């Protein structure tokens, strides 16, 4: 079992920045990759960014150049630095850990609005 706890969401103005954190606990040694996904009202959950245990990253086209995913292995924590935020980035952001199964966090709300 892997437990994930997200934090760092909130309300920010367009053009602003936020950093999300996802702390993993439990069988963290079994995690192959971690990622951030988001779901806006009335839309399907979509991939935002992923990072493998080796440090390889992947981003959705809509966030390339604005968002950066990183990990601190000593803290078993993954971060999502979000810059130049747009209203269309408004969503609930979820952290996922990929092992033999997928584990999800509870989600954190990000609202970009003036």
Radius of gyration: 13 Å
The description of the largest β-sheet is: 7 strands, mixed
- Give the count of helical stretches: 0
The number of distinct β-strands equals 11
Could you state the order of secondary-structure elements as H and E?
EEEEEEEEEEE
End-to-end Cα distance? 40 Å
Low-pLDDT sequence parts: none
Write a structural description.
The structure is a single chain. The protein has 114 residues and is mainly beta. It has no helices and 11 strands. The strands form 2 sheets. Strands 2, 4, 5, 6, 9, 10 and 11 form a 7-stranded mixed sheet that branches. Strands 1-3-8-7 form a 4-stranded antiparallel sheet, with no helix packed on it. The protein starts with a strand and ends with a strand. The mean pLDDT is 95.
Question: Secondary-structure blueprint of this entry?
Answer:
Blueprint: E1 2-7, E2 10-12, E3 18-26, E4 33-39, E5 46-52, E6 57-59, E7 67-72, E8 77-82, E9 91-98, E10 102-104, E11 108-112
List descriptors.
7-stranded mixed beta sheet; globular; 0% helix; mainly beta; 114 residues; 4-stranded antiparallel beta sheet
């Amino acid at each position: 079992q892997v437990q994930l706890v997200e934090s760092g969401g909130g309300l920010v103005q367009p053009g602003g920045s936020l950093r999300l954190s996802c702390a993993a606990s439990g069988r963290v040694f079994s995690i192959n990759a971690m990622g951030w996904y988001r779901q806006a009202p009335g839309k399907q959950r979509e991939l935002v960014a992923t990072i493998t245990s080796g440090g390889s990253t992947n981003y959705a086209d809509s966030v390339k150049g604005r968002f950066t995913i990183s990990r601190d292995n000593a803290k078993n924590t993954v971060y999502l630095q979000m810059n130049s935020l747009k209203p269309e980035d408004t969503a609930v952001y979820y952290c996922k850990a990929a092992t033999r199964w997928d584990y999800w966090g509870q989600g954190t709300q990000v609202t970009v609005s003036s």
